[in-house]
């Protein structure tokens, strides 16, 4: 008997009764109907996901997944691979943007190193999994072995289960990995009808010639693996990356556990697309933080029919856009739950 992989297990269903109750409440609050725009829809959406008329975000958790990419050998990044490990040190020291955003909001920041080129790296508070010294060069061979890909997916699932044990009502994730815009672009193209020319961008700051070189590498890789890309799990293994797989695994686990996930930028959105392709039941559980400046992000969001909360021209990654959107989500819940109704405030409603 063939046993289905864990990521194909059923996802939770949003609570229709809670959604209906939240809609009724929104119609009774002391404001013109629809006056708070997208914040109203966000509160109602969270009510359905949390199964209560008045949703709240009291225990958000943020995890950053890191890993290196062998495709950097093709000259697809403006930065050397050593930067991935160096930035992990910066996260630990509190000097990175996401470190500041997490600290200022009192959000726990968990760091998971899935596999950097520095296999001896030892940093306090970092979970070092060492699945490999980065992935293999997917322009020449599959990025991951079957075992590595499964372990990376499981790492995302394990992380979600760990934060659930501590209490979590919104899961935020970020990533770090030099070369990962190339992997995200290749993966997104493999999982959709989108073309590399639509999605390939400068990443960490490539010039025009660099973007052209990156595009050629991605096109060559997709041609190399073309016969194997119909299966989303195999597409992830062949042209994805450790942190992309971990992100996808975390999003899958969120949907199965009934925890909303806040998706960050281009890399995380590619991982979210992968999670949805692996299990379509994931989609209702994904909230999208922002529309990033990386050229392909808008097309990826459209592929997922996603409406981002912010548009600030961000292209940092690290989960920074998700962290910036968190206060907005909290305020949407506070407005929904804390405003008076017309009858409570003794204010006359419209006829």
UniProtKB/TrEMBL annotation:
Keyword Iron: no
Record-level Gene Ontology MF annotations: nicotinate-nucleotide-dimethylbenzimidazole phosphoribosyltransferase activity
Pfam families xref list: DBI_PRT
Record-linked CDD domains: DMB-PRT_CobT (cd02439)
Chain's role: Catalyzes the synthesis of alpha-ribazole-5'-phosphate from nicotinate mononucleotide (NAMN) and 5,6-dimethylbenzimidazole (DMB).
Family the entry assigns: Belongs to the CobT family.
HAMAP family: CobT
Protein name per the record: Nicotinate-nucleotide--dimethylbenzimidazole phosphoribosyltransferase
């Amino acid at each position: 008997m063939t046993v289905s992989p864990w990521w194909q297990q059923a996802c939770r269903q949003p609570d229709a009764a809670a959604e209906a109750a939240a809609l009724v409440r929104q119609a009774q609050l002391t404001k013109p109907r629809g006056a708070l725009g997208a914040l109203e829809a966000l509160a109602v959406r969270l009510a359905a996901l949390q199964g209560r008329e008045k949703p709240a975000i009291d225990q958000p958790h943020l995890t950053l997944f890191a890993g290196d990419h062998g495709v950097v050998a093709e000259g697809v990044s403006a930065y050397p691979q050593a930067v991935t490990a160096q930035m992990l040190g910066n996260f630990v020291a509190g000097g990175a943007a996401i470190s500041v955003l997490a600290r200022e909001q009192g959000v726990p920041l968990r760091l998971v190193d899935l596999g950097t080129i520095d296999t001896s790296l030892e940093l306090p508070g970092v979970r070092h999994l060492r699945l490999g010294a980065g992935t293999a060069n997917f322009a020449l061979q599959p990025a991951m072995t079957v075992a590595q890909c499964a372990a990376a997916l499981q790492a995302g699932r394990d992380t979600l289960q760990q934060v659930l044990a501590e209490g979590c009502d919104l899961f935020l994730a970020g990533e770090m990995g030099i070369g990962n815009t190339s992997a995200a672009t290749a993966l997104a193209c493999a999982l959709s009808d989108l073309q590399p020319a639509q999605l390939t961008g400068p990443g960490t700051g490539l010039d025009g010639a660099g973007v052209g070189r990156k595009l050629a590498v991605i096109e060559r890789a997709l041609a190399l693996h073309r016969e194997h890309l119909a299966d989303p799990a195999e597409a992830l293994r062949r042209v994805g990356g450790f942190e992309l797989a971990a992100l996808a695994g975390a999003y899958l686990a969120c949907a199965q556990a009934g925890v909303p996930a806040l998706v960050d930028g281009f890399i995380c959105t590619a991982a979210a697309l992968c999670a949805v392709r692996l299990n379509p039941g994931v989609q209702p559980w994904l909230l999208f933080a922002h529309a990033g400046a990386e050229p392909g992000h808008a097309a990826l969001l459209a592929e997922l029919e996603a409406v981002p909360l912010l548009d600030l021209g961000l292209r940092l990654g690290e989960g920074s856009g998700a962290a910036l959107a968190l206060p907005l989500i909290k305020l949407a819940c506070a407005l929904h739950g804390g405003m008076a109704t017309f009858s409570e405030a003794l204010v006359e409603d419209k006829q």
